[in-house]
Task: inverse folding
């Protein structure tokens, strides 16, 4: 298998996590219906939507700033986290006194969906074939010389090979 860029690995994690959220939504809605009727359905829908929205926004922010300097990426991720927290508290504030959803189903589905999406994201990123180092140093790309050390391979017999 060939190596993929970190951005491609993040995009794959985003795709897989989105599919996982949709797959988790179906049994969650069914279990909510069986356990609490229509309020259970709404609790399941809210739980999946909140968990998926919360987790997938971070991946989108990371993908959007993948080529940016690390400080810009950190600012985008931190800004997205702050925005997510504001939206989360607003949603929870708005629905706190409503009775159209089951709080127990919301909580259970939220926990299961967060764990499920995190497992899928972790697996997708850990199994991605990404390089840890750049195979072509910047000096080779620009055609300039630098004070980089010339690394020469050594064969098993101890002889240096270019």
Result:
């Amino acid at each position: 298998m060939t190596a993929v860029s970190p951005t491609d690995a993040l995009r794959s994690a985003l795709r897989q996590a989105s599919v996982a959220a949709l797959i988790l939504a179906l049994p969650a809605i069914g279990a909510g219906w069986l356990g609490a009727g229509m309020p259970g359905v709404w609790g399941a829908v809210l739980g999946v939507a909140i968990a998926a929205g919360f987790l997938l926004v971070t991946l989108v922010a990371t993908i959007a700033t993948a080529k940016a300097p690390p400080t810009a990426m950190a600012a985008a991720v931190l800004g997205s986290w702050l925005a997510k927290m504001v939206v989360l508290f607003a949603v929870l504030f708005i629905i706190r006194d409503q009775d159209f959803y089951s709080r127990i189903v919301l909580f259970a589905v939220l926990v299961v969906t967060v764990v499920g999406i995190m497992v899928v994201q972790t697996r997708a990123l850990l199994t991605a074939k990404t390089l840890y180092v750049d195979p072509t140093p910047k000096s080779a790309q620009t055609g300039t010389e630098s004070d980089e050390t010339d690394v020469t391979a050594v064969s098993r017999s101890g002889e240096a090979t270019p």
Remarks:
- The chain has a mean pLDDT of 84.
